[in-house]
Amino acid sequence: MIRFDRLTRRLLAPTRLGLSAIVLATATLLAAAIGLSAAAGAASTATKFSFTLVPSSAAITACLPHASGKATITRGSLNDTMTVSVSGMPANARFDLFVIQQPTTPFGVSWYQTDIKANSSGTGSATVRGVFNKETFSVSPGGTTTFSPTHQYHLGLWFDNPNVPFTLGCEPGATSPIITPFNGAQHAGIQVLNTSNFPAIAGPLSHVKS
Asked: Tens digit of pLDDT per residue, the chain (210 long)?
């Protein structure tokens, strides 16, 4: 029995070595494939596009000479992340961010995204998730209104409180605050920043590949 066991071990040793080599090679190839896949995924999710928002009018530039904004869109596999930051704003003021069809009046189809609150230094930011690229659109086949698929490639930012821009003198000639529908209560102030530094039909979102 001792001789048989020794012989058996000797016969099986090369077989075990061969299987181990095959297993090791397979594991190595699998790890490499997983690594390449992860790297490709990281590259696709790391794609970013940044752009600026500018004062919406000469009146805004006059009353808020340092008002500006910046947006960064980070592409994801299923949707996008957009971070918008503002500076040079009135201290502690609140604003409403929209994705819009046209950067200036009459703005067209508009999609409410988030509030942005400035701090005591007049800076603030907000991050939202959604589809913010060349495929961004709205459609209404019927119901209370009807319109065909309409792309929205611009951003617009409005004063949440209509009294703020009026008090600051951002509405020269106005005898009372101008009211717009650009907040959750549909009782907002005027637009303060937009992306009119891009063409009306080719807003910044159109530059983000889907």
From this structure: 444 454 444 444 444 435 444 334 444 434 444 343 333 333 334 499 999 999 999 999 999 999 999 999 999 999 999 999 999 999 999 999 999 999 999 999 999 999 999 999 999 999 999 999 999 999 999 999 999 999 999 999 999 999 999 999 999 999 999 999 999 999 999 999 999 999 999 999 999 987
Residues in the chain: 210
Cβ contact 163:175 at 8 Å: no
Distance from C-alpha of 86 to C-alpha of 89, rounded to nearest angstrom: 7
Question: Is the bond leading into 65 cis (omega within 30 degrees of zero)?
Answer: no
HSE of 141, CA atoms in CB hemisphere, 13 A: 0
DSSP line for 34-83: HHHHHHHHHHHHT-EEEEEEEESSHHHHHH-TT-EEEEEEEE-SSSEEEE
How far apart are alpha carbons 13 and 95 in whole angstroms? Answer: 75
Sign of CA dihedral 96, 98, 103, 109: negative
